[in-house]
From TrEMBL:
Pfam families: Fer4 (PF00037), NIR_SIR (PF01077), NIR_SIR_ferr (PF03460). The lineage of its organism: Bacteria, Pseudomonadati, Thermodesulfobacteriota, Desulfuromonadia, Geobacterales. Residues 164-193, 194-223 form the 4Fe-4S ferredoxin-type domain. Coiled coil: none annotated. This is 4Fe-4S dicluster domain-containing protein.
Amino acid sequence: MSKAQQPAKIDLSNLKSGGFIKERGKDLFTVRLRVPGGRMSVPRLKKIAEVAEKYGGEFVHLSVRQSIELININFKDFDVVVEELGEATQKVASCGARVRVPVACGGCEYNPNGLVDTQKSALEVDEKLFGTATGHHKFKVAFAGCPFDCPKSATNDVGFQGAIYPQLDKDACISCGLCAKNCVPKAITMGEDNKPVFDAERCIWCGDCVKVCPTSAWSEKRRGYTVRIGGKWGRNPLVGTLFATFLPEERVVDFISTVLEWYKEKAEALGRIRLGDVIIKEGPQALLDHLRQQFPDNTVTATIPPQVIETQVGIRS
């Protein structure tokens, strides 16, 4: 067989980094699609169904990170699958040691609990940072619009959670008590003068008092993202811890870039290691000092390392 007739060799590492994941079956792959924030237009969804029916198996899979995965795709069909998906501007995701597709809740467009526009943030991060090589390990980002935190942001390398810090205009208060009745953490109680009493230490920045107040006596003093860093799931889970508060939405990309800069430098020569483990090794103050140079108004004074979750068998190294 001449060299020209020899079948091309498949580099599985390169394919996986591009979102093509080898399956058990011969020549079959899962193709992971890029769906930032889990948002999918109806026309694009129809095209994906058409391609899946034409080239894939009997079903698709919805990953836990909001991606659609086409199952049982033969590698010989890669080019045509990518081309036909492209007709609806659908792109393939990536795997490997790079910034992954960000996940997000519905945000504030239609969700009454949403405090910030998580969808806008996810799209911006996807556009500017998706696929950025870390040189060490995967790097996951999640956006939650409120303290309900449906995307479980603290289990990501960098997790953002919408927040509102409330303030009260007592003169505008009509003493209806709705704020106190709706304050789940009991940060608001009614005082002897029948006006709200605010306990800042109990407040979780959910903004419910602002939403229910009929006279706008409660309003937002600050709005932005609470940021937790160093989380991950998998074989040795970590929960990320608090590094910044009320980060402006328009500074999300700069913030992640600053974290990535520190991660790349501190993980040098450490091999395949996640951000949370680097923070534990270096100490959280090292990352706080780095962040404070660019975000002095948002970086917290002190924090604790990412927290080890001993849910797995075996001794953690």
